[in-house]
Amino acid sequence: MTHALKQHAKPHLTATLILACLAQFMVILDVSVVNVALPSMKHALNFTESGLQWVVNGYTVTFAGFLLLGGRAADLLGRRRVFVAGLVLFSLSSLAGGLADSRTILIAARLAQGLGGAVVAPASLSILTSTFTEPRERNRAVGIWGAMGGAGGAAGVLAGGVITDLLSWRWILFINLPIGLATAYYSQRMLVDGRSRQATRNFDFAGALAATLGLSSVVYGIVRTDTSGWGNPITLVAIALGVGLMALFLLIEGRIATAPLMPLRLFHSRQLSAANAVIGLVGAATFAMWFFLSLYLQEVLGYSPIKTGLVFLPMTLAIVAGSTIASRVTIRFGAKRLLVAGMTALAIGLVSLSDIGVHSNYLGQLLVPGLLASFAMPFAFIPGTISATAGVEAHEAGLASAVANTARLFGGALGLAILATIASSRSDALLRHPGAGAHAASAALVGGFQLAFVVAGGIAAAGILVALVGMPSIRSREAIPSQVAVAAEM
């Protein structure tokens, strides 16, 4: 009898692992796969330089704003039910994005995709941790799930180039439909439903909505400065409204919500606060790197989408290699020391990318600094995430990890908005210069990208200062085993 039960459980566990990892792979892949297709989207739907960032930020903002709420919903409503609903939403919004005939529809579809991803990601991890009850099997399952982040990123850049070149940019969104719906179908049939009996029946939807709308409003206001200036009333109102909503979010989390998504007591720890600040700064510095490089390679150097994907592939593989090494050496050297080293290398790599020109040498001006910045990213994210989760109660470790991931996405969205606005403003100023020559458009674009990379390097350097001042010089051996998988996925 026992043997028969074990025989029956094996396929069930295998199916659970495959479905959860496939969903996570799809959600992460959809971030990187879009980067290569940005120039094609720009020309097809007549995006402006500043407006194009909403294809990325539309996904990032809702993903970050509803990530914690997605995890809460899975615990309260049933993990399988929420997981399947998220997959269906993600799949249908991908279809809508692929069929979009206007900028507004595409951005709205990306917003809906982000909401679906915010549900799928925490639900998939929750399903694994609740299904795999034996510690060794659970750690293995979570480790494989975490590796999907690196695999999705590496596959996305190449797949995005191939699909965009051979078919069109629309197919990078269409491809999610059969995968997502098939995963949803088999998940409904094969996964065990369940919910947390200890979870407080409170969604804190108001907190999630305030955070998402607040960040969106600030980003919108910053983007508008490129065309209307900082003194424009609409711009000022948008930024003021966003700041007010973010303040409301803090009030809701600290005083109003009975079960807050982001309990402010977590930030009583100076280490945790500093670590999340660093993670946000790293997100702000790095999200824009892929955005600018994709535009530079295709708009200035004239690379095809496939060639762009091949250029990006070594960089994403460097992230995977860096993640593997960083997770192993953090325990030896300590999170703070490794974090400072990683941030320093990242700052150098980003500033070195400002050496690009209208005609660049691939090896020296693109590959070497790109590899340095990419390899350095995990040496900032992984020890930062370990520090952001060390010292919290065991039952809040998952929450602390989710807060760190939210900080990364919020920082990335805000950083992309600021850096894209800086780049666009610089390019416009160069175009208006009386001495602009025949290649003025390309030179102006490059000038904007150069300034953005310098500022991005400055943001990374600010993270070094935060780490030096706010992080204690200790080695947290206990925190590492339970957090490496989640940190590596970031």
Structure description:
This protein has 490 residues and is mostly helical. The chain has 3 domains: 1-202, Up-down Bundle (Growth Hormone, Chain: A), CATH 1.20.1250.20; 205-256; 265-490, MFS general substrate transporter like domains (Growth Hormone, Chain: A). 82% of the residues lie in helices and 0% in strands. The chain is built from 16 helices and no strands. α2 packs antiparallel against α8 (205-228) and α13 crosses α16 (480-489). The longest helix has 44 residues, at 2-45. The protein is globular, with a radius of gyration of 22 Å. The chain starts with a helix and ends with a helix.
Work out the number of β strands. 0
Integer average pLDDT = 80
What is the overall number of helices?
A: 16
Q: State the helicity in percent bands.
A: over 70%
- Which range does the strand content fall in? under 5%
Low-confidence stretches: 1-11, 476-490
Measured between the Cα atoms of the first and last residue, the distance is: 42 Å
Structural class: mainly alpha
Instruction: Give the overall silhouette.
Output: globular
